[in-house]
Amino acid sequence: MKRLLIILLGIAFVINLLPSGNSHAQTMEDYCVVPPYVIQDVPPNVMIVLDNSGSMFNLAYACTKTNTSAAGNNTTVIPVRDVSGFQPRQWIAVGA
Prior knowledge:
With about 100 residues, the protein is mainly α. The chain has helices spanning about 1-15, 30, 80-85.
């Protein structure tokens, strides 16, 4: 039994000394691979619109009073009821 154990240990030691295949360290390229379905070769399609004319300072609905003013030269006066259709003194008939 002792002789068999010595033979098996000797065989294991000899197998351990045999040359194995080359082992290579990992590189960062192995970890930084992007899948082909994630890569996009289409350039972004962006249009930036910038208005610096000063008309953006005008009021959306101008008031007919003379003491109301805007930063621009808003000379056209459109009453709110003409634009929105809101009639403050009109009753709404429900179910008519």
